[in-house]
Design goal:
This is PRC-barrel domain containing protein. The chain is of the alpha+beta class. The chain has a single domain, classed as SH3 type barrels. The protein is built from two helices and six strands. The protein starts with a helix and ends with a helix.
Length: 113
Amino acid sequence: MTLAGLAGSAGLASAQEARSLLLSRADSRMQSGAASLVPTLRGRWLYADHRLVVGRVQDVRVSQDGNTLIAVVARRRWLGGGAIGIPVPSLSQVDNDLTVSGTSRTIRAMPAL
């Protein structure tokens, strides 16, 4: 390997280390964000359009891609049962209720986790 090749590979390793440090910091922020929302959201009922009771929030996690916080909701049995993941940014609070936009059909169509 030439001297230029060695210098280039050293620069690449340094860039990868810096990138992994940034990614680990971002992951740490997302994890702490999820942990800070758990006390606020866990145990709350989630409603959809027309006061449809979707289920109860069980947990808040980071999505697999690491870019979004996901509310894990225990879906009511008649809506398909099982736990579903709903992105936290799509949740809103109306009066004192935690809500998401959707109908019984869209809630049933959500894949279980």
